[in-house]
Amino acid sequence: MRTDGSQKPYIRLIRAALPAIIAVLAAISLYQGIRNALAFSQDFQWDAAKALAMGLDPYELSGSPLPAGNIPELDEFYTMFTERGLKQQMEANQFPSLLMLLYPMTLFNAGTAKVLWCILNLLFTAGIILTLDATFFEKVLPYDRVIIYLLMIAGTPYRNQLGVGQHTLFAFFFFMLAVYIEKKKGRAGTVPVALCLFVSYFKYTLTAPLALYFVYKKRYAPLVISVAAHMVLTVVSAFMLKKSVIYVITAPIRVASALTSEGGIDLGVIIGGTAGYAVAFVIAILLLLISVRLPGGNDHMLVPVLVLSSLILTYHRTYDFFVLSVVAMLFYGSLKEDFGTKLNNALVCWYAFLLGAVYFGLRLFNENTFSKIITGVIYYAFTAVLIIMTMSLIKKGKVNRVSDNG
């Protein structure tokens, strides 16, 4: 779109008014998200982390409205919900090496920790924006960046993510920080990149597929170090709980498996059962092969494919879908040169419609079955097209001279 004085007056008026309108929606969304976070933050998992820090088994305590026995520290946490007539139970669906990352929060009482977590999530949001600016969105026009970020915050997924105290903002920020450090320091940043990836795995259902970006970059050392560190902590946690290593690996999976049918539009909801796992496995292998074989300079194609795929491979509620904003980088690479203007324009419209459906449409229809089906069709078709396009670049062996990420 032209941005000079030759634009028609009504176009200039729309361009001037659009950020202001979306900013108002974003401010309202942010206010409501913070308000919900300070009142609830029910997915924070402070209780599970506190139990582990106290030497209690959070997996044994999971599933009941209140922990077995009288545990004052945990009772205080659950009282925040029972006082409002709500039920809350421990759902320790994270591996112990990940729960350990929340140990600093357990030094505070539940009420204080909840406030701190909300503040941290706001800081993580700012960090995501800053690191995106310096990496994947480096070629995105400033005006477009503002629109993209405001839409993300105005959307239902981000508001709910903040309100329920989820961990995707936390994990995704550290993934983006790993990308940023890798871009700035290269191999000299192996250790800090590995540390950031180590933390980012807290939401491994999102960041494990995204970590294939480092396979594409041929940066294997940070991946190996980050995974090895979790393996070591897993053994440590087994000693802490006086349980076998097999137990501390399978116990959180058992807790998480009870949630697989409660996602948004992921394969677990659409297909379910063994067939769903099989399809997810095939797609995961395909993503790995794409990451290994895709020529350099095609970040703008790979990252959107990884983001879109990560949200449907395993259980995800729609509050995780705020990361769809990253897919916008697709249109600031060599898409037009590789596939033509017509396809580029069609994909822009398709993507805009997808964002509208996910960020606002699902909420408008209270995520009823019909709205999920329509959104799912749009989402899966868009993802399939991008995967096919990315595979065609492998076949062509096209290497872009200038990498999208430096």
Helix-strand layout with pairing:
Elements: H1 9-39, H2 46-53, H3 58-61, H4 72-82, H5 96-99, H6 103-106, H7 110-134, H8 142-154, H9 156-163, H10 168-185, H11 190-200, H12 204-210, H13 212-216, H14 220-241, H15 245-257, H16 267-270, H17 273-293, H18 299-313, H19 335-339, H20 341-364, H21 369-396
Helix pairs in contact: 1-8, 1-9, 7-10, 10-11, 10-12, 11-14, 12-18, 14-15, 17-18, 18-21, 20-21
Category by helix and strand content: mainly alpha
The oligomeric state is: single chain
Main pleated-sheet profile: none
Cα-to-Cα separation, first versus last residue? 25 Å
- In which range does the helix fraction lie? 55-70%
Radius of gyration: 22 Å
Q: How are helices and strands ordered from N to C?
A: HHHHHHHHHHHHHHHHHHHHH
* Count, helices: 21
Mean pLDDT: 93
Number of strands: 0
What fraction of residues sit in β-strands?
A: under 5%
Provide the low-confidence segments as ranges. none
The dominant shape is: globular
Question: What would your notes on this structure say?
Answer:
Helix content is 69%, strand content 0%. The chain is built from 21 helices and no strands. α20 packs antiparallel against α21. The longest helix is centred in the first third of the chain and has 31 residues.
Keywords:
mainly alpha; 406 residues; globular
In brief:
This protein is an all-alpha fold and 406 residues long.
